[in-house]
Design brief:
Strand content: 25-35%
Radius of gyration: 31 Å
Family: Belongs to the ABC transporter superfamily.
Strand order of the largest sheet: 1-2-4-3-7-8-10-11-12-13-25
Keywords: ATP-binding, Hydrolase, Membrane, Nucleotide-binding, Transmembrane, Transmembrane helix, Transport
Number of strands: 39
Shape: globular
Number of domains: 6
GO molecular function: hydrolase activity
Mean pLDDT: 81
Number of helices: 24
Transmembrane segments: 12-29, 617-636
CATH superfamily of the largest domain: Alpha/Beta hydrolase fold, catalytic domain
CATH class of the largest domain: Alpha Beta
Distance between the termini: 87 Å
Protein name: Alpha/beta fold hydrolase
Amino acid sequence: MPSLPRPRPRQVVAGALAVAIAAAGVVWLNTGDEPPPVATSDQVIEVPGGPGEQSSVALDTRLYLPETTPAPAVLVAHGFGGSKESVDDDATELAQRGFTVLTWSARGFGRSTGEIGLNSPDHEVADARALVDWLAARPEVVTDGPGDPRVGVTGGSYGGALSLLLAGTDQRVDALVPVITYNDLGQALVPNSASTGEVPAGTPAPNAFAEDGVFKRSWAGIFFAAGMGGAGLADPAGDAIEESTEDDDAAEAAAAAALNGTGAPGMGGGPPGAADPCGRFTDAVCAAYAQIAQTGQAGPETMALLRSVSPVTVTANITQPTMLVQGEQDTLFGLDQADATARQVKGPVKVVWYTGGHDGGGPGPDLRAEMGEWFDFHLRGIGADPGTGFEYAVQGALRAQGSPSVRTVTAPAYPGVGGAGPVERRSLALTGDEQVIVNPPGGNPASISSMPGLGSVIGSSSRLAGRLAIDLPGQSARFRSEAMTQQLLVAGSSTVRLRISAVPGTPPPEGGAVMFAKLYDLDANGVKTLPGSAVSPFRVPELPADGSPVEVSVALPGIVRPVETDHTVELVVSATDQAYQMPAEPAAYRVALADADLAVPLVPGVGSSTAPPAGPLIGIGVVVGLVIVAGAVAYVRRRRSDTFDPELAEVPLVIENLAKEYPGGLKAVSNLSFRVETGQVLGLLGPNGAGKTTTLRMLMGLIQPTEGTIRVFGHSIRPGAPVLSRIGSFVEGSGFLPHLTGRQNMELYWAATGRPLEEAHFAEALEIAGLGGAVDRRVRTYSQGMRQRLAIAQAMLGFPDLMVLDEPTNGLDPPQIHQMREVLRRYASTGRTVLVSSHLLAEVEQTCDHVVVMHRGKLVAAGTVEDIVAGGGEATFRVDDPETAAEALRGVGGVGGVTVDGPLVHADLDGMPRSQALKVLVNAGVAVEQAGPRRRLEDAFLQLVGEDPQG
């Protein structure tokens, strides 16, 4: 037989693409009719402003009309930070089903006016009632009586809570479908999952909902930042949740300014300004956030406010058919929130748990169709009765195509609700001795359970996100079960009873002991997965200082997890978690099992697979899969071929056209380019929200850029890149174990890196830091300045060629700042490079030789400190005859702002070279002793970011 030529890779890819396009054409030709047309119209609806506001608020709305009217109506509310545009697809789908749909931008978002009251009964809920009034007068809407439209309501997260609040206050609502929302906002943002009594166990996912909870700092900061801008950070229910582009401290500082009365007047209402720390929030909401952000604990007024805007206040009034949809991948509003609502509503209720959530995305097409069928039956009287059952999705092993298998388990009713019997719970024996755990100073470094707002970005599968959890040694107690002999399907919140005590001599901090409980699935190889990335925070407020134990019942996070044969379950109790506010004081606790049994909820039911249909689609899927694989291989090859630029091998850092855009259009960094040379101390400056933190995270390989490149010594930065070992970093607040010496803390840190001891360079790092003999003293005896220098020394271990420091002088007094300045200069003098992100402009001016100024994600200036300072053209001259000098300069065209200050004359040269001004003075007979730029770095910085102090 003649030999056939071997196809080239490009030919294979081209052939696969051709087949895929042809297959797609066949599918397209065989599709059914186009969906029915939908007409839309936008209008502004005026509603009453509410107590303490202007007379009216303008709501930006959009009406969707189906092919045939009149029809029942559905209100679709958007998620926090979104607008009517966020729910356009959902509204269109419902209109195509035959409903008249109304969407709107809630007050304070999009183009709507007013202030954000977090679904206040007198504001956002009253707005929704006014929209129902408006629908009642529309000829396109079916009515049940005068002023009573036949109407349903749905929405996700913030919009889901509004659905419940509206239904509980307006009986004209005929059916509702709240999605991934909360029952009690106070318990969602300040949860306490432990009780000295027993946690109710009748339903699958109860929580203790106790008082004195732990502040969910990261999530709260994300949402407060969204409200400060009035838009831009959409809820996953509306579209997608995005990462906060700056530290939570920025939002806290703004709120603190409002609480202390330093904000500008006119907060809220109109578009927020630079001096408007409350953004579009009401003063009450802003003050509540400031109170909790500064203290870490919610006061009575804050909790009362959060409860007043929560569905729990009206759920007892809800008699309408309610379909509760909650996500299994949700670290913001967990399954416990829907569980509480299911127990409280009085009407028929159906509960659905699906594989998404704030960390996993919104409902897919099948679930959206099920929601539409709920409205079909209850508003239009068509289709089968959806009933009041309970459905939950079980995510299994990965398929060959890479996506996880999912099956749905259906039970006749939600256990413990509407006459259904209580949930079944199985006792699972745990073993483990009493263990001591430590909360380091400032609660930092902290364990990691989740990355709020990034879960859906990390991956749709919980496997990837669940394996990112980290529990630091010395901070976590562990208790483990025996290996499973058959699959254990956990469906809800397990409960356990713990015995907690303070270690004598280390009394618990004021406010009580804060801890975090979570449940891992360990496979036979010891690989751990934290289902849903979920953790249950709890506080034991009155822990005796004499070491007497307190027993508490802890509700673990609500999860759905099939624990397979040969797997084990591990309960971990940690003293820290980076997503929450921890006590600043160091403390040590003893943790033991009060009862060796873990009570695991089981909900039996009928299972059905959601695998794709067989037949011709399989062939198409294979072809498309081949194309994707081929494309991925080509992409990886391109990335590998572009990992090193030999021309930049000696350059510490080059950033070119860097951009980071999050879903929803939020641009944290845009077209950023700058270069850092060997031996420089470069300051990265910018106001809050400038994109500094996002840039540093991309530099450290923690998040991926949308566009552009970051090269360190010629190598492209990506997660896990080997060149990252040449970077040392120090994050503000790095904690140390107080009972160990400085040297022991550093040795422990270095051991955790896994690198050889001889590469540590302990002596050299300590010499540069200037700690002397103090390195062998216990850290608890250190001053703040010594702790900061120890942290710098730790970052210097291994002598990284590039050191990245975030606020290294924060919290230091002037002498300590001077010492730190010398440390950084000495390190740079060794031929290495330092990048400092700081808000202390005076210190940057004295410490750094180069500056990069960012504003709103963009580069506004870069260069030496001297060039930046001199950029405004303002100059100062020291002369023997100030009056004559001033008169001479005033006579020069273009020169302005001439003032006399003792022997100094200040002038704005407006671009004139200083040498020409000197010539003018000399010709006037004035002796000039000194000439130079007048401005400080602070003046230059404020002018660059649009806040010129002279304005």
